[in-house]
Design brief:
Blueprint lengths: L1 E6 L9 E7 L6 E2 L4 E7 L2 E6 L4 E6 L6 E3 L3 E7 L18 E2 L24 H10 L16 H14 L2 H19 L2 E9 L1 H12 L9 H14 L6 E4 L2 E4 L5 E3 L1 E2 L5 E2 L2 E2 L7 H17 L2 E2 H5 L3 E5 L18 E15 L2 E15 L5 H15 L6
Parallel strand pairs: 5-17, 13-18, 18-19
Antiparallel strand pairs: 1-8, 1-9, 2-4, 2-7, 3-6, 4-5, 6-8, 10-20, 11-12, 13-16, 14-15, 19-20
Helix pairs in contact: 1-2, 5-6, 5-8
């Protein structure tokens, strides 16, 4: 057994802090690999954070309701087995505990609010500012001196004001991620119109044999085609980290989904390249339901290797999307429309879809991007029987 520190995870490239909402375990509990141990609130919603080891809970270091920085130690575990290893192209997820040297003291924690019942040490000016701003001084995190200053109170008041408007917080998080993407990632764009008449005919025949509740939507065909094409395109599937392309052998397809009340998240459909049409539809339905109701897992929020954004149901013909850092590419899909199309020298009406690609020029170029789009089409028209 080894003592390990369990840190506040980074549940997205733009996340800086998270709030411990509810512990699902208590000291002394035995937990299994993959078990949810804490619910964390971020600017993009409530996330279930799992443990990646079999372990015994030694201590919970952050009270419920307290916000801390990413990387701050929030619990201590007694863990069986080897130290965590990296999954996919990235470093080990922040949700995996980091081994502590046997003789080291506990890492310094960011300041948190004064524990219930403890003496509050605050300057007279800080107490006056707290009264004026309607802030409970016991809820204010002190500075490095351990004494609460007027500046600490004003910071807490500003944070509280922002938190009362979750939509504003979410828009700030999205803005930060997209600004980082456009600032740091050299995007290039490609798009292609695709005749999907045969794919839709296959889908109609497939659904005719199934109960209404188990029928497959066209979006599942697109997601399956993107995942299979990504599995054969390492320059599109993975991450750009520390100046290098880190391709992934697995495809964890981010599926862009609108949240209730506004905002967007792209939880990953894990091992999407292994899913047939029906399994892909089930995975999409499951993750969309949990985006609306809560219950997304930390790995789903951090494991994405490529993303699909489909806006066809909103009547959009096409989309030129922005890459989700540190991923290498994102695919866009618009609506299916009826258009005149030349088949065998004759103009006929066909069902046409516009696919688009935004890719990182540090990892690929237009030639490789074009081949990737063609491979998506090959996996889509006509689809294989699942």
């Amino acid at each position: 057994m080894a003592e390990l520190a369990f840190a506040m995870p980074a549940l997205g490239a733009d996340m800086e802090r998270g709030r411990v909402v509810r512990w699902r375990v208590k000291p002394g509990d035995t937990i299994g690999r993959g078990q949810v141990i804490v619910e964390v609130e971020t600017d993009k919603g409530l996330i279930d954070v799992e443990c990646f080891h079999d372990a015994t809970v030694m201590a919970l270091l952050v009270p419920e309701g307290v916000e801390v920085a990413v990387g701050a130690v929030i619990a201590r575990l007694d863990v069986a087995g080897a130290a965590p290893t990296a999954e996919g192209p990235r470093a080990p997820p922040a949700t995996e505990p980091a081994r502590l040297p046997p003789t080291s003291a506990a890492p310094a924690m960011p300041p948190v609010a004064t524990p219930l019942g403890a003496r509050v040490i605050a300057s007279p000016l800080a107490r006056r500012r707290a009264a004026a701003l309607g802030v409970d001084v016991a809820t204010v995190a002190p500075g490095t001196s351990g004494r609460i200053s007027a500046e600490d109170v004003e910071r807490a008041a500003a944070t509280s004001t922002r938190e009362r408007d979750p939509k504003e917080a979410m828009r700030r998080a999205i803005a930060a991620a997209m600004a980082k993407s456009k600032r740091e990632i050299p995007h290039y764009y490609l798009w292609q119109s695709v005749d999907v008449t045969d794919a839709l005919a296959w889908l109609t025949a497939h659904n005719a044999r199934r109960p209404v509740t188990e029928r497959v939507l066209f979006g599942a065909l697109v997601a399956r085609a993107v995942a299979r094409a990504a599995a054969a395109a390492p320059e599109m599937n993975g991450a750009y980290l520390e100046g290098a392309v880190r391709s992934s052998l697995e495809v964890h397809l981010g599926f862009a989904t609108a949240q209730r009340g506004g905002g967007l998240v792209a939880p990953a459909l894990l091992d999407a390249h292994t899913l047939d049409v029906d399994a892909m539809m089930s995975a999409i339905a499951d993750v969309v339901a949990r985006v609306k109701s809560g219950g997304l897992k930390s790995r789903e929020m951090s494991a994405g290797t490529i993303t699909l954004t489909a806006l066809g149901e909103l009547g959009v013909d096409g989309v030129l999307p922005v890459i989700q850092p540190p991923q290498l590419a994102i695919v866009g899909a618009g609506r299916v429309t009826e258009r005149p199309w030349v088949v065998g020298g004759a103009v006929v009406v066909r069902s046409v879809l516009t696919l688009s690609l935004a890719a990182d020029h540090r990892a690929s170029d237009g030639h490789r991007g074009a081949r990737f789009l063609q491979n998506i089409v090959k996996n889509l028209v006509p689809p294989e029987a699942p």
